[in-house]
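A quick word before the example. In earlier lectures we treated sequence and structure as two separate objects. From today on, think of them as two lines of the same record. Here is DUF2848 domain-containing protein written that way.
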Amino acid sequence: MFDLTFTIDDKGLATPLTLEIKQAVIAGWTGRDPVARDKHIAELEALGIARPATTPIYYRCSARRLTFADTIEVCGEDSSGEVEFVLIGWQGRIFVGCGSDHTDRKVESYSVTVSKQMCDKPMASELWELEDVIGHWDQLVLRSWATIGGERVLYQEGTLDHMLPVKDLIARGFGDGGLPDGCAMFGGTFAAKGGIRPASRFDFELEDPVLKRKISHGYDVITLPVRG
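And the structure line, produced from the sequence above:
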């Protein structure tokens, strides 16, 4: 466990909030539409990644993989980012953030659980109160851009009405007890436009078109050589 200091919007004022992150959970295959969900599964199968044992499925990774850094280092050319909303439980409240489940695809082909541990998980430092957005949750938009060969392209985009509702997502992973204090859960992602591929930079955002605000972050990807 470790502390991360976020910024929350408190009645229009940016206020620091330090949370003790005790565990990180990566929820996968959380699509509300089985057709879209199966498209993403097929996308990963094309890379040699086996179908999940259940849908949704909840992987664990080290909480210390969460970072606000604007640069991460990865081994080899086989990793890529995925934009996701992030839910964090704290003292009976739930906060909403945005992050990237950066994953090593080569490792993912033989163990999804291990792949989730291989890379840092960059996050934006801003959070919203879930209660402020739950009434229009389905209208929130996730987007990402990948810089590939020097060109910045739209990589993912979709509204959260394509994802499991928050209540269902939490209940299936944690039962009636709700999201535990200090648990940061990544909520799933959309298929990549043009297929999953590595990038030298990854930018992402969560947009609230009703309250007209965004949470955004981006990071460069430094590739380390693989010597054996």
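Notice the following. The chain has one domain: 2-224. We will return to this example when we discuss secondary structure assignment.
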